[in-house]
Amino acid sequence: MATQAQIKKGYIDYVLTHNEQPKSVYSFVKKLKITEADFYAFYGSFESIEKNIWFELTVETIDEIQKQELWEQYSSREKILSFFYSYVELLKSQRSFVIYSLKKHGIRLSTPEVLSGVKPIFENFAEQIINEGLESGELAERKFFSKRYKDALWVQYAFILNFWVNDDSNGFEKTDEAIERGIQVTFDLFQRSPIDNLFEYGKFLSQNGKLKEKMGF
């Protein structure tokens, strides 16, 4: 009986050789010398293979960085940076497939179907880190907006993937710079700023309007 790894490897080999999916499950399994029942025991379609590959790459990255000795000492900003640096490093081993998959589906700010399994995993991971930052005071608690922080990080995810796919610099050094700049700017926006102080001061004045009147202002 075929293994899941055998089917996945066979699919990757096929699409990278032919730059398209197999014409049918029948022709694909015949080439692998397995049965259709073997295929459907693990996957419902060729699309599900690609979704699973992306899912596994994301979960593997999260599992590995959380095993780092200093992980618990990292700030929220450092944890997200660690994810993206490690994620891109892992994607290098599958770069040809990543380029094929993303260019076929089209990477954009809205989620392509092939990444539909990745988004909830990433957002759950990001939300945990954001909540840690909110609790520690590293990040600013803002009514309505705090819940959207994870959405901003998903936008960064899409941007970084697209940037890396098109990066032709030595060692993908431009992607490293894009990660650094993008995450730093994003987390700067998540942190307290003079604007927060201004809003709080305005709120204070509004709540104490009657006190001002009694004092003759």
TrEMBL record:
Residues 79-205 form the Tetracyclin repressor-like C-terminal domain. InterPro entries: Tet_transcr_reg_TetR-rel_C_sf, TetR_C_23. The lineage of its organism: Bacteria, Pseudomonadati, Bacteroidota, Sphingobacteriia, Sphingobacteriales. It comes from Pedobacter frigiditerrae. This is TetR/AcrR family transcriptional regulator.
